[in-house]
Specification:
Elements: H1 3-11, E1 13-20, H2 24-32, H3 34-37, E2 47-53, E3 60-66, E4 72-83, E5 87-94, E6 105-115, E7 118-127, H4 130-155
Antiparallel strand pairs: 1-7, 2-3, 3-4, 4-5, 5-6, 6-7
């Protein structure tokens, strides 16, 4: 990869990491089990309605995020790669007929075992352009950090 490509990706990417006090297997389960993910997914004040979650290449995760202000956010994830318990790769966008390509981005989540009960999760979102990345960063960075905090609280109970 050339330096130009690396710089280009950096301008189109949001990366959020968190180290959790739990085994990699436990963190993986919380992220891939529909009964668990609805309990913590999303920023503070958000809830979810899960329609389907099929964690396998070609599988789909469809859910509606309900904001604290009453707004609904339809989401659709299509899994590209699933390597249990190391990595998830998927495309993520809106799940509606109005604009299915809106905010479409590529996501890679890695689960790195640091110790017996220490797992580093890295979420990488790659956007089609720097403009898309910057628009999404206005809410996604803080929202992502809040989501990881909610996950940590859920897992560490």
């Amino acid at each position: 990869m050339t330096k130009q490509n690396i710089a280009s990706n950096e301008n189109r990417e949001i990366v959020i990491t968190r180290t959790l006090s739990a085994s990699r297997e436990r963190v993986w389960q919380a992220w891939t089990d529909p009964k668990q993910i609805v309990k913590w997914w999303g920023p503070n004040g958000f809830t979810n309605t899960l329609f389907e979650m099929d964690v396998r290449p070609g599988g789909v995760w469809r859910h509606m995020m309900h904001g604290p202000d009453g707004a609904d956010y339809p989401n659709k994830v299509v899994y590209v790669e699933v390597v249990k318990p190391e990595r998830l790769v998927y495309s993520h966008g809106r799940d509606d007929d109005k604009d299915a390509s809106a905010c479409q981005h590529h996501v890679t989540v890695t689960f790195e075992e640091l110790g017996k009960n220490q797992t580093k999760v890295t979420l990488r979102m790659l956007f089609g352009s720097e403009i898309e990345r910057n628009e999404t960063a206005k809410y996604a960075v803080e929202g992502g950090n809040q989501t990881f905090t909610r996950m940590a609280e859920y897992i560490e109970k």
